[in-house]
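---------- Forwarded message ----------

FYI, see the Adenylyl-sulfate kinase record below. Original note from H. follows.
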Amino acid sequence: MEWTPDPRELADLELLLSGAFEPLTGFLGHDDLHTVHERGTLADGTRWPAPVTLHLPADVSPGDEVTLLDPEGLPLAVLTVTAHEPDGLTSGPIKGLGTPEHGPFARLRRTPDQVREELGGRTALAVTMRGPLDDLSEIADTAKELDAVILLLPLAYGEPGPALVRAALRAQERLPAGTLVVPVPLAPRDEPEIDLELREHVATAYGATEHLAGPDPVHIPGPPHRRGLVVFFTGLSGSGKSTIARGLRDALLELGTRTVTYLDGDVVRHLLSKGLTFSKADRDLNIRRIGFVAAETARHGGLAICAPIAPYAATREEVREMVESVGADFLLVHVATPLEECERRDRKGLYAKARAGLIPEFTGVSDPYEEPDDADLVIDTTHISIEAAVSRVLDTLKGGGWVR
């Protein structure tokens, strides 16, 4: 089978293939994870600070081979499965199939072996960076004291990656001649101590004699009305979510203070997701496509309004993560009109067809709707007008500073 890992797993895969995660030869299984969490070692006692894992939702068995792809479908490695847990945790050794393709600053990417060869046995002071280096005096003084080459390792993972490499190149211009810049796609770990230990391990793999950890970035978000925002409506068919969403779009266009993109569920089905069925897999794919377009809109400061049914909690959470990963805000609006009221309205006759068995996998009848427990706003349109519902959403946007 073929599988595309998520961004964090892809970053770990690249470091496994390059040798930066030596002595690891693949993704960790249950026993290694247990001892990593408990003692900071692998099951055989080898020092290792952090989980390096892969989750596969598909049913695989020991001995199976899984081709791991990049987001463009390029094969990167083959995983030979040694264990597959009920939660999807899949372990096993990997074998590289080719060099990963990189985007910005691809010319600067090098493997640990290549960097060590370039260093030629010289003492190296590695500086791992998750943010810009404001004060370079300590780095320059330490390198002079050690008579060391300076090796800047911008940990270029995710959206901030290119900006971080640019910061490293600016620092290179102010540091002694011969300073090297090598981007490393090391995803941050949640616990600072573990993140630091992993950074030290990677620095050593790249030939560092000494290691300095650059300061963590300080994120100062702009005012809400300048940030990207996705207003994501979810609710049963006939709940009123599309009508409220259109009303919100019209109200925002009248105000004229934000750039608005409207992604209605039915319209998206006819265009962006034409050909998809109403199976769970295709419904999830439809929502991911909506989420991707909305996140791209929000990435550039726009305001996107989405109004699909989005019946599954896990997929809604994926969309939230997509949006927040690009530095935008996400507002979930649950239009919680009860099923009985939605069915009473049934302007399209869909519920009647579903009850008659003519529409399989219909949300609320033959397929579940998982009510959100993380909604930022809940509206029941049974006893209020659409105008009042739109006003509630608009007031929320104004109260949060997203609209002025």
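H. also flagged this: Residues 280-299 form the longest helix (20 residues).
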